[in-house]
Amino acid sequence: MTAFDRGLLGHRCWLELATGERVDLPVDRWTAIPCEGDEVLLDACEGPTLDVGCGPGRLTAALSERGVAALGVDISATAVRLTHDRGAAALHRDIFDRLPGEGRWRHVLLADGNIGIGGDPHRLLTRMSELLTESGTVLVELDPPGRGLRQDRVRLRPEDGAWFTWAWVGVEAIADLAARTAFRVAWSTSHGHRWFACLEKA
């Protein structure tokens, strides 16, 4: 079992940066029912939605319960199993691999910092554009103001995981990033300590 899988099952884990800095992962939020701030994302989904890096499936399942067609995607087999256990659909697949419904998704979710997947937000948003309809949106959770755009080498702890690249995007950096990937910011908002934006195709 990897450190990431332990987190999906509710065990405490964190990212260790090459600098020695530590970033705690929101394990309690991953494994809970939809919680503070999640309604911002859920309420914005009015059609077929792809939940990228779905984890244990709290958002995928919540959308399904609302009658919204939703599919979770995660590279962790544990995440996919846990999403299925919630009664929701999920695929064990890399987001950069071929996916069903390419070009026909109404919304893509990048919650819980998943804008950092692959360590290259520009490449990730370019991929999201391929998955969406022309009127589709990316609903993304961001870091608070003042964080900018940051990329770094990290590994999952407490186990000795392999190093990989991750990224963080502050809310003030999303407009420039969107513009460089043929998106524009439709809106941004905060709820409690969490920040969100909706990107639409320019």
Automatic annotation (TrEMBL):
Chain ranges passing through the membrane: none
Gene3D superfamilies the record matches: Vaccinia Virus protein VP39 (3.40.50.150)
Matching InterPro entries: Methyltransf_25 (IPR041698), SAM-dependent_MTases_sf (IPR029063)
Methyltransferase domain ranges (all copies): 50-136
Pfam families in the cross-refs: Methyltransf_25 (PF13649)
Protein name (Swiss-Prot/TrEMBL): Methyltransferase domain-containing protein
Organism whose genome encodes this protein: Amycolatopsis keratiniphila
